[in-house]
Structures are given as structure tokens and as C-alpha cells.
Structures
1.
Amino acid sequence: MININDLFIFYSEFGYPGILIIGLIIGIIIFPPIPFFPVLMSASLDKSLDPTLIALFGAIGQAISKIIIFSFSYYGRNFFLSKKTMKRMMPIHRLLLRYGGIGACVAALSPIPDTVVYVSLGLAKYKIWKFAVAVFIGKFILNELIVTGTVFLGRPFIKNLVLGFTTEPITLVFLTIVGLSILSVSLYLLIKIDWAKVIGKWFPWTLADDTDHEKLDD
């Protein structure tokens, strides 16, 4: 049995840097998925820690982990994708380049699996600094809502909730299989779909001259 409380030693020993480390580790470990909110809630129960700083350091750690994931797809694009595939993906790339910041921020702010969004933005060569800012903002807002809600609801209620949170091995295996399946199918569709037909009708500007293809590799 894996207990989320096993991770609390980091922040109990190192304070805010420990929260940053936990956010970084949990963010990088895509499978099995480990939730970060119990850590935020538990840290908020510590009266010696400031709730806003908990949210801030957690967001920094989470943002760094997402930048690492993003960088793998950003720099590995030419290795994994053929020129033919990249040409077919040009419309979705152009769409992501224009609205990627909003997508990254919404994905970071929401509890939905966000790896596919970040990998897609990396493949589209979205600006790294814009990606980092968008993800940090989204994660910070989400973390702030969690820690503020913890303080508002009261320490006794949240303490019982956090201490009772455990993840059985069989559950982790199931979540890993489901997560891998969703990620694999999503990436397959992202690569195989003819995006010119899918989004060209609604966003005709994404069907610009394919000579722009070289610009995305700069």
C-alpha cells in the first residue's frame, strides 16, 4: 500500500523547498499518477507555513516538471516525426502556436490529465518561456485555491481527509494502464489525423503556405 503521507517527510524536513521538490517529483512521474493536492492540504495544516508560499513553491516545482516533459517533445520532434507527418500536422501546430498559452494555462489550472497538451505544444515548437509562464500561472492559481480552501474548511476536517487518503497498488496499476492508453491514443490521433480537413474549415488561416514549415524548426 502506498500512503501519500510518505511524501510529507520532504516538506516537514525542508519546509518550502521540500514542497517544491515534491511538486517536481510528482509532476515528472506521469505513471502511476500521484495527486499533489493532499500534500498541499497537509502542508496547509502546518501553522508555521504561509499558505501563499506553499502554493507558490508547489507551483514552481510543478512548472519545472512540466517544462522537462515539454522539452522532451520540443527537442525530440525531429527525431520522432517524419517530415511528412510534420507537414500534415502544420494546421494544428499553427493553432497551438496562437492559442497554446491559453491551453497550457487551462490544462495546468484544471485537474484533467495535462501531459497530452504539453507534449502537443512541444511538438508545435511553442515558445518555452511562454509555456513556462502559462503553466506556472495555472498551477499557482489551482494551488492557491486548494490551500485557501483547506484553511477555510478548517484543519480538523482536512486533516481527517488527508490522513485517510491512500492508494492501493491495484489502483495505481489500473490508473497507469488507463493513463497510458489515453496518452497513446491521443498522441496517435494527433499524429495521424489530417488536421487540414478537421480545423481548416473553422480556422482557414492555419492552412497557410507550407513554406512556413521551416520556420517552426528555428
Note: The first helix runs from residue 8 to 14.
2.
Amino acid sequence: MISTRHAASVALVLALALIPTAIHSYWGAVARDGLSTSNVPSILDGMSSTPTPRKAVWVMNNFQSEDWIERTYLAGTDDVVLFVGRSYDPKRLYHHPELALLRAYETEPAGIAYAASRPDVPLHIVTTKRQDQHGVAVYALLYDGQFIANPVAFQLKTSAELLVGGRKPMTLFMASDLAGARDRAADSPAARVLLAAIAAFEAQAPAADR
């Protein structure tokens, strides 16, 4: 015979454990901020662009994102490919995004740099190589108004919040110059495009939840 003395306590614990499942699986609760990558203009800081042939199904499969853009900007004599994508599954974005976006290239993380014009934005630097062609990519991660320097610390900090709260979108900005110089990455054409895109994205007036 099973004692019912602790039935109420057990039921309460089980109910609490079901809260995250209900929030994310059944209610699909998300915290919308009204921002969109579509508001990043096709001309940034005088640099014109053309869309890349990236497919929506590829972005969904890799990043769980329906809100994204990818364009090639002409920065002086350099072609810089800019990807901006948002996802409610942050790990899809912060866990080595270069492995997906630069799949045809050998990539190597090269630390974090800061541009003098935006010391608040940690620029994650990645060097690239394909045959004899060397280049550089820079990316930044934005979550809830804050730029992320350490994704592991971010994951630990937000894990409890994500268990019981609505999911918030993370935004990935990546600019790659696959023929660009690797030195002074924070002042490179790729960084220029990236920071211009961030400024345009931040300039959006937050809209009411939709």
C-alpha cells in the first residue's frame, strides 16, 4: 500500500517541473521586442549591397530563424558578406556560427577585439582560409540589449531565467571578408560593415509586442 502522506508535496513538485515544458512546448511563450533584421538598410555608411543566394530553408535548418538577411556590401575594394539573423534558440547562433556560415572555408577563432568607436561591442574574430586565400570574419551577439563576450557565461546566467520565462531573441551579426587582411581586424572593412549594421539595427524604435 502506498502512503498518501506526502502526496500533496509530490504533486506540487511535479507541477513545478511541468512549468518549463508548458511554457515552451505548449504555450510557445516568447518575449517579442518588435525589432527586425529587415530594417537593416541595403546601403550602410555609403556602402551598397546585393542579396546573396542564401535560402530560407537553410537558415531555418541551421539557426531556427525566419528573421534574417544576407547581403554582399562593397566596402572600398573589398566584398564583405553580412549576415544578420535572429532566433529564439540562442545556442544555434552563439555556438560557432562560422562553422555554418563559412562552411566551405577552414576557420580558426582568433579571440575578441574592440573597435575604438564601439568599445561596448565584443567583436569575435575568426580567420579564414581556402586553398591559398586568407581572410577574416567578425561577429557579434546581441541579447536583451546586451552584447555577449562569453557565450558559456551567458548560458549559465540565463539558464534559470529561460526555464520559467518566455524566450527572448538573440541576434547574430557576422561580416566576412574572405580576402581581407587579418591584422587590425577591429578596423577592417568587415568590422566597418558589421558596426554599421549594428547601429542601424539599434536605431529601430521598439514596437509593441505583435
Note: The mean pLDDT is 85.
3.
Amino acid sequence: MRNRFPAVLSTILLLGTLTTPSLAAPARLQYAGTYVTTRPGVDSTQQLVLVLAPNGRATLTTSFPDLVQRYGPGVFPVRETGTWHALGTSAEVRLTAIGLVPRRNRMKPEREDKRIVFGATGCRLTAIRYPKALYGEAGLTFDKSGCKG
């Protein structure tokens, strides 16, 4: 009878690699958090808040403080929602719904399909692939809230 030990050992090793937790999990925890930036807009400064939740959900909220000051609290922020995942030293955000954030009544968001890939350096995310028609040549750069580094 032949020795089946090498075949059994290789099967065990293969099963071990298939059940080992993904290396993306530590990266996901590393990138998870709240990121903020301010940028000029046509009629108002835009304040953007990007939240990358540990569970893979993403939210991008854009508010317009100059318009709120000029016209009052009826100027609602825009909220985009979707998912994100880590890609080594970058993170890809896919936003699939967009809508206004009303103060009292809920508004039904509309569908969208926007992808932004951010390069990560320390406490900063910088868009490296994004819709330039929406964000211009300067793109987007966010700083992580509460991050020291």
C-alpha cells in the first residue's frame, strides 16, 4: 500500500488557507473611520464628510454652509450611500444611492453608480480614480478625524 501522507498533508494545508481570515480585514479596520474635507463650490463652500464603516458601508455627505447662511435651514445636505472595501494601500468606495437629507420628512434616494478609489497615506485619503466631471482635476482629499500621524 502506498503512503498517502503527502496527499493528506497537502489537503489539510489547502483547507487551512481557505479558512484563514482574509488579510483585507485588518486593512478594513485601518481605513474605517470618518474623513472630512472642505472645498470651494460654485455658490458655496462644500463641506464633505466620508464615513467608512467597519462593516463595509460608506456614506458621503455634502453640506453647503454658505447657502445655509444665505437662505436658511431649508438648504439640505446631499447624502450618498454605498459600500467600500480595502485594496491593499487603497480603498474603493462605490456609491449607489443619492438623496437630500431633510430635517423632518424622509426623501427617497435615487440610484447612482459612482466609484472612487482613494490612495491612503497616513491619516489622509486622496482620490486617485474618480469622476473628474464631478470633482475636477483637483479631485478629493480627506483627512481622518481624530487621527494623529
Note: The CA atoms of residues 63 and 77 lie 4 Å apart.
